[in-house]
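ok new one. same drill as before - structure tokens go in, u give me an amino acid for every spot. 442 of them this time. try not to just spam alanines like last time pls lmao
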């Protein structure tokens, strides 16, 4: 799921901090993803700062590689990509996907500002206003820990994970990881439409037949990987922790990022040791809210409000004309899905500002005949209801009434927290937000 890191080592704040320390240069105004990658020609790299880096024991290997340490996430010290976080300039089988995700995390931590293209791709990157001050800090500094916590609490999916955890607790404030996984993807309503709505092959006998198109995450793998990363980023705030580990976390909450990181490094290789049960500390979370430390500044952006990876368990081609109907669906209806979800997120965010509940039925009726927002008239209202799960994943912490017909956000979000839609969609959305779709509940 784009905008959500989904590799286990992105849960390590120490990896990200070592990347930042190795690459920060206040005189470097703009750079691309290649600049973040390990570069054997560069005097400073992540390995030089990595708190978990392992020593190369073979002296001949040390001499040949011209370094003393190697990344703990690679099995072979001589692996050509060197650093699993960003891979290397000299060898990158991931085609900058790893470096791109690392850049996303640095942006979440407010260490960089990313300039995106209209399609959501990274054009260039620059250092943020906080970066110079943070560069002067060292790993395990309390000030750095507090900075990390504040930034993580402004990231929608971390707050979203906390929401789903809070709804799946037992009487002892303990939750099971497996219960949360199902929420870490795009919710899906199977949209039904005639093939001719998306395919212009008039000679195809299937053109008047209805096809079903899933609009959500269809693979468990991506959810599991997102779960692993998000749960450790969330644990860095001190709000959750492995069972029987609470006392260590509570000594100084601002040191939580370092305590969790150390625990994670010790256990990450043996997945069987990952606790299936975790503890939720509601007092810590409420304390953060009371001190205004929870506000969504970045969440899932507009361009990432639809599933991008292929649906591997589905047959993509029409059995008669061989048109790739799944791709065609996203080509012609993908923007409509993004528009609908963006409008819903903005409407729910607005509900908190004006202290009124969003009436989902009124929003549905108002947009039912608007081709910018409606994919299927038959399922439009149900789709909006289902997308409330996405709103919670984005960190809005909804309070619902009347079987989800009325909803209000409980956590505030910046207007640009969901990215930037096309100007005409933003303009139409703003006009809809001025309509009578909100109501006061006494």
């Amino acid at each position: 799921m784009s905008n959500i890191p989904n590799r286990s080592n992105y849960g390590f704040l120490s990896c990200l901090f070592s990347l930042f320390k190795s690459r920060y240069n206040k005189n470097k105004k703009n750079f691309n993803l290649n600049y973040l990658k390990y570069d054997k020609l560069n005097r400073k790299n992540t390995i030089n700062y990595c708190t978990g880096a392992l020593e190369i024991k073979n002296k001949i290997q040390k001499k040949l590689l011209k370094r003393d340490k190697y990344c703990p996430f690679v099995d072979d010290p001589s692996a050509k990509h060197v650093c699993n976080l960003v891979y290397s300039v000299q060898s990158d089988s991931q085609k900058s996907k790893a470096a791109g995700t690392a850049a996303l995390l640095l942006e979440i931590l407010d260490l960089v500002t990313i300039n995106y293209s209209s399609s959501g791709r990274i054009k260039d990157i620059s250092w943020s206003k906080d970066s110079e001050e943070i560069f002067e800090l060292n790993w395990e500094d309390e000030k750095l820990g507090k900075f990390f916590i504040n930034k993580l609490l402004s990231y929608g999916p971390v707050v979203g994970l906390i929401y789903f955890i809070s709804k799946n607790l037992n009487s002892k404030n303990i939750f099971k990881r497996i219960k949360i996984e199902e929420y870490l993807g795009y919710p899906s309503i199977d949209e039904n439409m005639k093939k001719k709505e998306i395919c212009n092959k008039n000679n195809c006998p299937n053109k008047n037949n209805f096809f079903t198109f899933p609009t959500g995450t269809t693979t468990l793998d991506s959810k599991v990987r997102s779960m692993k990363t998000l749960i450790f980023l969330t644990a860095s705030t001190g709000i959750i922790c492995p069972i029987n580990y609470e006392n260590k976390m509570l000594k100084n909450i601002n040191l939580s990022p370092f305590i969790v990181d150390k625990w994670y490094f010790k256990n990450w290789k043996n997945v069987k040791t990952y606790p299936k049960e975790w503890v939720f500390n509601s007092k810590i979370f409420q304390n953060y809210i009371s001190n205004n430390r929870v506000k969504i500044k970045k969440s899932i952006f507009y361009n990432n409000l639809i599933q991008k990876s292929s649906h591997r368990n589905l047959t993509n081609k029409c059995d008669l004309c061989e048109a790739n109907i799944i791709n065609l669906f996203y080509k012609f209806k993908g923007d409509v899905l993004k528009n609908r979800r963006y409008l819903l997120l903005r409407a729910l965010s607005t509900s908190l500002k004006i202290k009124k509940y969003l009436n989902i039925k009124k929003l549905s009726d108002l947009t039912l005949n608007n081709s910018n927002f409606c994919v299927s008239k038959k399922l439009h209202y149900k789709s909006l209801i289902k997308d409330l799960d996405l709103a919670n994943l984005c960190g809005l912490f909804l309070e619902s009434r009347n079987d989800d017909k009325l909803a209000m956000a409980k956590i505030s979000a910046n207007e640009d927290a969901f990215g930037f839609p096309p100007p005409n969609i933003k303009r139409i959305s703003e006009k809809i937000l001025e309509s009578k779709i909100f109501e006061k509940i006494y």
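The chain has a mean pLDDT of 88. and btw The two ends are 39 Å apart (CA to CA).
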